[in-house]
Amino acid sequence: MLELKQKIDLKAKPFNLSDEDIKWVEETLANLTLDEKIGQVFVDMLWNNTEDEVKERIAKYGMGGFRYNNMPAADLYKQNKVIQENSKVPALIAANIEAGGDGGVGGGTHIGHHVTIGATQDKENAYKLGYYGCKEAAAIGCNWTFAPIVDINKNWRSSVVSSRCFSSEAEQVLEMSKEYLRGAKDAGLASCMKHFPGDGLDERDQHIVTANNDMTCEEWEENFGKVYRGMIDAGVESVMIGHIRLPEMSRKLRPGIKDNEIMPATIAPELLQDLLRDELGFNGLVITDATHMVGLTSAMRRAEVMPYTIAAGCDMILYYRDKDEDVEAIKEGLANGVLTEERLNEAVTRVLAFKAMLKLHTKKANGTLVPKEEGLSVIGCDEHKEVAKDIADKAITLVKNTKNQLPITPETHKRIMLYTVDNSGFAPNKVDKAALKDRVKAKLEAQGFEVTLFDPAAGLNGKQLLAMTPIKEFVDSFDAVMLFVNVGGFSQSNVRRISWAMPMGPDIPWYVTELPTVCVSVFNPFHLIDVPMVPTYINAYTDNDATLDLVIEKIMGKSEFKGVSSVDAFCSSWDTRL
């Protein structure tokens, strides 16, 4: 049995509760049954559920919070009303508002990924990301953002922390994360920094395997420790725990610990209690990352891990697998002593204090848990789109232009051969839109270019297979080549690299010595490592239409490139700079 005695100061930050708030927390806790207490530590996932299904879940399990997949604003608004009207204790409703309102509601405004904001080199844009993104989510009744991402990209190979970080430097990550926090707070949402104890070193994906942060204790303190201390001091309300091991810190805090005893932070009391609570002084809410991720499930049987996450120091569990099994696992943990009733009460107290901090109890009393429906008009509004466009304009980065090939215009290079690589992977908030190749082609043609879209199965393009097209014929047919790449998002692999049609195939940039060539990455900022031969490389960070229009304008010289990469776009390789 773990002996963890957590100290909760409900009057201290981030809760800052009044005596009246504390009375509500204490009275609510006292009136909860065991089943209701267990329900409060779970965040459920809703996925196109009917109104009756939502009501039945709440009636049976009384879960403390919800995450949901993005749907149209009206549908989410209705769903959240059903949640709050049927919950005995007001519910936390969370979303991944990492890149704007599109993370919180269908049709929301994409403001920019964290790395986009970093490239603007302006912390005010981090505030705008938090404020405008959370403002749209708040309109449908969301009250909790699973952001900012305070990971630090120390390894360009990281399959998770590519576009999902502000910078590779701790100081910039902290500065921008604090601004996001301020923006979210002004919009009325609580923030959740993630993923403690810090991602961005291991190239493996914790969705697929347990990842490691192999920094020394001193290195960790200088980097992630600096960020966490700064965010805690700034009043961040919650922290999400990654399925990431921090072996050197575990060894320091638990002398003699064996390698096979070093666990991911989610179930590592020395990291949750000794480091996060005691050393860093975090007094807020601690939630696991998704508990069905293999980074956790490969470490311990689920029946054991459910009570152990709470016993080790987490206050909330992100997602059930099977609700009845998971609830029973908590009860078995209480029965066999893995989890004490005292520790469960501590966790529930923090959940209730978190809700009181958001004034959910008073909003329930006056009927404002879900705002007025007319507020939905803010979602995807013109004002927010203009903010997003301005940020994109300041972020788009000309990483490399060694042959000074720009500008490329219809007057100088009218005939364009367009290649695209489009494998964006699974994205929870993905918006249906035309294929990248079709959108780029149409936009180039609208500017006056003549565009041939690469197709290995037809016409002239077919002759290019295995480089069988005469070089002179290719050069005589085109004035320049453009390659647009969209590879990223979640996938079934640890790799977020460019894959080509075949070895020595016609799509690989064999043409860079024959014609002016421009490569544009519209998601992953580290694709130059896969195309080091291209003389002109641009990071656009996003593939939405407004950004694509801006990229083409900049290629044509109609506006200047303003972005400065906040990560190592050259991937620590000398040849990418040639």
UniProtKB/TrEMBL annotation:
Broad EC category: hydrolase
Gene3D superfamilies: Glycoside hydrolase family 3 C-terminal domain, Glycoside hydrolase, family 3, N-terminal domain
Keyword field: Glycosidase, Hydrolase
InterPro entries registered for this protein in UniProt: GH (IPR017853), Glyco_hydro_3_C_sf (IPR036881), Glyco_hydro_3_N (IPR001764), Glyco_hydro_3_N_sf (IPR036962), NagZ_Beta-hexosaminidase (IPR050226)
Domain Glycoside hydrolase family 3 N-terminal as annotated: residue spans: 33-352
Gene Ontology molecular function: any one: hydrolase activity
Domain of life: Bacteria
Entry EC no(s): 3.2.1.52
Chemical reaction(s) catalysed: Hydrolysis of terminal non-reducing N-acetyl-D-hexosamine residues in N-acetyl-beta-D-hexosaminides
Family: Belongs to the glycosyl hydrolase 3 family.
Protein name per its UniProtKB record: beta-N-acetylhexosaminidase
